[in-house]
Automatic annotation (TrEMBL):
Protein name, entry field: precorrin-2 dehydrogenase
One MF annotation (Gene Ontology) recorded for this entry: ferrochelatase activity
Gene3D superfamilies with a match to the protein in the record: NAD(P)-binding Rossmann-like Domain (3.40.50.720), Siroheme synthase, domain 2 (3.30.160.110), Siroheme synthase, domain 3 (1.10.3280.10)
Keyword Membrane: yes
One BP annotation, GO: siroheme biosynthetic process
Source organism: Collybia nuda
Siroheme synthase central domain segment(s): 131-157
Organism phylogeny: Eukaryota, Fungi, Dikarya, Basidiomycota, Agaricomycotina
Keywords: Membrane, NAD, Oxidoreductase, Porphyrin biosynthesis, Transmembrane, Transmembrane helix
Transmembrane segments: 253-272
């Protein structure tokens, strides 16, 4: 990044909303997308909208997640509705009410997003790719939402589909490592970070996906304790790096199918040669 690149952007962060309260004012199509995005975070959702204004997906989400979504069948009353809220989203077909809500939210110091007024938003939503713990957001910073949607499709095609699973395994391994070598910061923190970095550099996604609890402990015994990163092949039967070497991207997914096809071909050749 050159010096001239600073400025004109927005902060991309993974906002932790678990246990927080999010108010959504409006219950139409955009609100249904907001509800889905917020449900992922384990926040509690309050939706304010007259029932006749709810679109079918919003209705279905409110019914299916009744324990996590409180719906008030009425219009927005005013700042009394902000009580206890940590975030406010408007998805209204009335820009004047939306603008007024933004002003009230700002006065109450609660972050606000208005679907119809980019200039009044404290933050924007983006096009999302989710695969377990992997979260990718594409943002055009308000310039072209449809372009964000199109670029998301391109990025989706570039992924193998096993990144999320591999990251989840790395997460589990990091937890086990912290149990074995506890402590925050200092020399232990440095050593943990170096070891994890070396492991992630050396192992493929396919290698990581194959890790189970037992192999993780073995990896820590042989790797962490001896300050080295063993190759997957040395760690036991589930780590079949030879398959991954031949089919690095689809080894785990297609290896059984490829084995079956090769087997059937061989059997056919044997039958044909016997008939002759
Ligand atoms: C500023 C922002 C505020 C915010 O919503 O946070 C905003 C604002 C507005 N969007 C409008 C229109 C459309 N929005 C979409 C779609 C999405 N919009 C999303 C985000 C954002 N939209 C934020 C900026 C994000 C960024 O810049 O990257 C996405 C990425 C995420 C999401 O909404 O969750 C989601 C795609 C998700 C996906 O597919 O993955 C489509 C396409 C479609 O529906 O298929 C259209 C029609 C085509 C078009 O206009 O491009 C209008 C009306 C404009 C008008 O009246 O002319 C406004 C208001 C305005 O711009 O004035
Ligand atoms: N940011 C984005 O990605 C997009 C934004 N938009 C904009 O978002 C806005 C909402 O779009 P849609 O959801 O499609 O509209 P919609 O017409 O489907 O929904 C509007 C909702 O607002 C509710 N409502 C109206 N007045 C209310 C009040 N005083 N209190 C509580 N609820 C009230 C209605 O009951 C209804 O549920 C529009 O202004 C549109 O231009 C549209 C597409 C994408």
């Amino acid at each position: 990044m050159s010096k001239e690149d600073f400025g004109g952007g927005s902060l991309l962060i993974a906002w932790q909303l678990k246990g927080k309260n999010v108010l959504i004012i409006g219950g139409g199509e955009v609100a249904s997308q907001r509800i889905a995005s917020i449900l992922v975070t384990d926040a509690h959702i309050t939706v304010i909208s007259p029932i006749e204004g709810l679109n079918p997906r919003t209705k279905q989400l409110i019914e299916s997640y009744a324990h996590r979504i409180t719906h008030y069948n009425r219009v927005f009353f005013g700042t009394a509705d902000f009580e206890g809220m940590d975030m406010i989203l408007t998805a209204l077909d009335d820009v004047e009410i939306s603008r007024a809500i933004c002003q009230m939210s700002r006065a109450a110091k609660i972050p606000v997003n208005a679907a119809d007024i980019p200039d009044s938003c404290d933050f924007y939503f983006g096009s999302q790719i989710r695969d377990g713990p992997l979260q990718i957001m594409i943002s055009t910073n308000g310039n072209g939402p449809k372009m964000a949607n199109l670029i998301r499709r391109k990025v989706e095609k570039a992924l193998t589909g096993i990144e999320g699973e591999a990251i989840a395994k790395v997460g589990e391994l990091r937890e086990r490592l912290k149990v074995r070598a506890p402590g925050v910061g200092g020399a232990i923190g440095k050593r943990r970070m170096k070891w994890m970095t070396n492991l992630c550099n050396a192992w493929t996604l396919e290698d990581l996906v194959l890790l189970d609890g037992e192999t993780m402990e073995k990896l820590l015994d042989e790797g962490w304790e001896n300050d080295c990163v063993p190759s997957p092949a040395t760690l036991g039967s589930r780590q079949q790096s030879s398959i991954n070497g031949i089919f690095p991207r689809w080894g785990t997914a297609y290896a059984p199918t490829i084995g079956l096809v090769v087997g059937v071909l061989c059997a056919t050749l044997v039958i044909i040669s016997k008939r002759r």
